[in-house]
């Protein structure tokens, strides 16, 4: 499909630079079949049914952005995907000044050797020394805010908490599963009282989630691979939810993409561990999920294509036009939607 079919105009003032406070005070746009209605996130329990199951991503964002230098050249690095105990794939700022074998020195004595430039322009960074890379990043890295936020304000101490979900446990993401940023312990208690269940899986979100689609046709776009895991007990439980006639509601496109990667043609969710580069566009047959909680996405992005596949492109264009006209806040720190096809 033509990528320009997924374009729309978004006024810059609609981009949220801070999250709602408290988190569940964000607005929520409900699309339920042909119904469109304005709600608040804290009303979600009343919009779901007893026996439904929300599926969250428990990945934890690491301080994946580093500033350093090679000689006198300033070099920035955004880690993208782990490839080994000390090796990460990274996108470099000022990459033309870095050759394979070069050493890059970051803050606080942290250093890495660059190698193997990829077709996507990324390079492999192998961190030097014996300390665990996690400790090196805590010392020298910073929270990797999305470029559309970082370009408008400086990341600060508040982001270290604001950009983590309450479910964050498995360290490895370089971007937050932002739909889950809206959830609070009080909201989860309300779900439990309503008989709505929840489960977790792990997908380490990569920086590729922010990469623009640069081709003219979706068939030519190459997705970045991300690592995920659904254990056997969780897979069995999620399949049982649907088998008994209840709904699986993915919280975030990351949860949805991993669930769809783990589901077979028989619509059964099986254990999964490994990379997924699934690219969901209109015409895709969903096999694992019955609904989605998600934020509002960038024009021409793979995520807007995904929600268009779930609800229909014309439906989503109209919904986004309503959201823009009604003052909804967009992107990672913005408001949410509940999509029930």
From TrEMBL:
It comes from the Bacteria. It catalyses: 7-aminomethyl-7-carbaguanosine(34) in tRNA + S-adenosyl-L-methionine = epoxyqueuosine(34) in tRNA + adenine + L-methionine + 2 H(+). Pfam families: Queuosine_synth. The keyword Hydrolase does not apply. It is found in: Cytoplasm. It is an enzyme of class 2 (transferase). One of its GO terms (cellular component) is cytoplasm. Keywords: Cytoplasm, Queuosine biosynthesis, S-adenosyl-L-methionine, Transferase. InterPro entries: QueA (IPR003699), QueA_dom1 (IPR042118), QueA_dom2 (IPR042119), QueA_sf (IPR036100). Its main location: cytoplasm. Its EC number is 2.4.99.17. GO terms for biological process: tRNA queuosine(34) biosynthetic process. GO terms for molecular function: S-adenosylmethionine:tRNA ribosyltransferase-isomerase activity. Pathway: tRNA modification; tRNA-queuosine biosynthesis. Belongs to the QueA family. Transfers and isomerizes the ribose moiety from AdoMet to the 7-aminomethyl group of 7-deazaguanine (preQ1-tRNA) to give epoxyqueuosine (oQ-tRNA). PANTHER family: S-ADENOSYLMETHIONINE:TRNA RIBOSYLTRANSFERASE-ISOMERASE. Monomer. This is S-adenosylmethionine:tRNA ribosyltransferase-isomerase. The lineage of its organism: Bacteria, Pseudomonadati, Pseudomonadota, Alphaproteobacteria, Sphingomonadales. The gene is queA.
């Amino acid at each position: 499909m033509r990528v320009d079919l997924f374009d729309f105009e978004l006024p810059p003032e609609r981009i949220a630079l801070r999250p709602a406070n408290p988190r569940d005070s964000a607005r929520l746009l409900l699309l339920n079949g042909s119904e469109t209605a304005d709600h608040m996130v804290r009303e979600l329990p009343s919009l779901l049914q007893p026996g439904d199951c929300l599926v969250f991503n428990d990945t934890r964002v690491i301080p994946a952005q580093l500033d350093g230098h090679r000689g006198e050249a300033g070099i920035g690095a955004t880690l993208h995907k782990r490839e080994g105990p000390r090796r990460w794939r990274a996108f470099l700022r000022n990459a033309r000044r870095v050759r394979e074998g070069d050493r890059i020195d970051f803050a606080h004595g942290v250093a890495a050797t660059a190698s193997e430039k990829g077709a996507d322009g990324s390079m492999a960074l192998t961190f030097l020394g014996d300390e665990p890379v996690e400790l090196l990043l805590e010392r020298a890295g910073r929270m990797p805010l999305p470029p559309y936020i970082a370009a408008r304000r400086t990341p600060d101490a508040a982001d270290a908490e604001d950009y983590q979900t309450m479910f964050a446990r498995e360290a490895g993401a370089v971007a937050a599963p932002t739909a889950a940023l809206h959830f609070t312990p009080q909201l989860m208690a309300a779900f439990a009282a309503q008989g709505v269940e929840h489960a977790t899986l792990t997908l380490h979100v990569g920086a590729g989630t922010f990469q623009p689609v640069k081709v003219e046709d979706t068939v030519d776009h190459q997705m970045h691979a991300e690592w995920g895991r659904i254990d056997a007990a969780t897979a069995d439980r999620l399949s049982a939810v649907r088998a008994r006639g209840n709904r699986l509601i993915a919280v975030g496109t990351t949860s949805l993409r991993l669930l769809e990667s783990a589901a077979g043609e028989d619509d059964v969710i099986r254990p999964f561990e490994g990379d997924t580069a699934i690219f969901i566009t209109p015409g895709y047959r969903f096999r694992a999920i019955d609904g989605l909680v998600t934020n509002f996405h960038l024009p021409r992005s793979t995520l807007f294509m995904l929600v268009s596949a779930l609800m229909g492109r014309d439906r989503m264009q109209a919904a986004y036009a309503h959201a823009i006209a009604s003052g909804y806040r967009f992107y990672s720190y913005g408001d949410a939607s509940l999509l029930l096809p």
